[in-house]
Write a structure and sequence with these properties.
- The chain has 221 residues and is of the alpha/beta class.
- It has a single domain, classed as TIM Barrel (Alpha-Beta Barrel).
- It has six helices and seven strands.
- It has a seven-stranded mixed beta sheet.
- Helix 3 packs parallel to helix 5.
- The radius of gyration is 22 Å and the shape is globular.
C-alpha cells in the first residue's frame, strides 16, 4: 500500500483512543481547502516502507488503542483490505477516514468487519459539492455511502470543514440537514495556511525594509 505519512501517536484522531495514524497516497478529489495536498498524487519516492510501519505498530501495540487510516483517500488503495486484515491481526481497532466516493469498497470492508469506526466528510450542500470537492463529484455515490455508513451499525461520524470563504451560513445549515438522523456530525476548523488553492491561504507578510533610524553621536565640546 502507498503510505505517505505515519504518526506513531495521536490523541485526537480516533475518538476516546490513543491511536497511530497512517496516511495513504492518492486522492480522487481536489478540494481547494485540502491541507494534505502533498498526498493527492502517488509518489513512490516519498512512500514509506510498509514493513517498517508495521514494525512500529507491532512495537507499540500494547500502548495503542487503535489505528487510523486516512489520506489521501484510502479506498483507492487496491490492497486496503489486506492491509486492514493485518492491522486487525495485531488486535488493534481500525478507524477509516473517507470522502465517501467509493461505496462498493466501504460495503465490502463493513461486511468483512475490517473497520471499527468510520468518519466520512460531507464537504458541501449537494448542489455545491463540485466546487468544494474540486471535481465533478458523483452525488449518487456520495449519498449511497452516507446511507450505508449510517445504517451499518458501525460507530461513525460525519464531518465538515467549515471553509468560511466558500460556505455561507445557509450552506452550513443545509449540510446539517443532509446528515442522517441519529448520526453524529462534527465541524472541523479550516486551516487556511496549508490550503491546496493558494488563493485561500493567508497573505504572506513581507519584510519591512524601512531603514532603522540612526542615532546621532554625541558632540564633543
Amino acid at each position: 500500500m502507498r503510505i505517505g505519512g505515519f504518526v506513531p501517536v495521536s490523541l485526537c484522531d480516533y475518538p476516546c483512543r490513543v491511536a497511530a495514524v497512517i496516511f495513504t497516497q492518492g486522492c480522487n478529489f481536489r478540494c481547494p481547502f485540502c491541507h494534505n495536498g502533498h498526498l493527492i498524487e502517488k509518489n513512490a519516492d516519498a512512500a514509506l516502507d510498509e514493513q517498517a510501519v508495521f514494525a512500529q505498530l507491532e512495537d507499540r501495540r500494547t500502548r495503542l488503542g487503535g489505528v487510523v487510516v486516512s489520506g489521501g483517500e484510502p479506498t483507492l488503495q487496491p490492497d486496503l483490505p489486506d492491509f486492514l486484515h493485518r492491522v486487525k491481526s495485531l488486535g488493534l481497532p481500525v478507524k477509516l477516514d473517507t470522502n465517501g466516493s467509493r461505496p462498493d469498497v466501504l460495503e465490502a470492508l463493513i461486511a468483512d468487519r475490517l473497520v471499527d469506526y468510520i468518519a466520512m466528510d460531507i464537504k458541501a450542500p449537494w448542489d455545491k459539492y463540485d466546487r468544494l470537492a474540486g471535481i465533478a463529484a458523483d452525488g449518487v455515490l456520495l449519498r449511497r455511502s452516507l446511507r450505508l455508513i449510517a445504517t451499518s451499525g458501525v460507530p461513525h461520524e460525519f464531518r465538515t470543514t467549515r471553509v468560511e470563504p466558500l460556505l455561507t451560513h445557509e450552506d452550513c445549515a443545509e449540510i446539517t440537514r443532509q446528515v442522517p438522523a441519529g448520526s453524529q456530525h462534527k465541524w472541523q476548523k479550516f486551516r487556511a495556511e496549508h490550503s491546496l488553492d493558494p488563493l485561500l491561504r493567508p497573505p504572506v507578510a513581507t519584510a519591512d525594509h524601512t531603514p532603522a533610524p540612526t542615532v546621532n553621536a554625541a558632540r564633543k565640546n
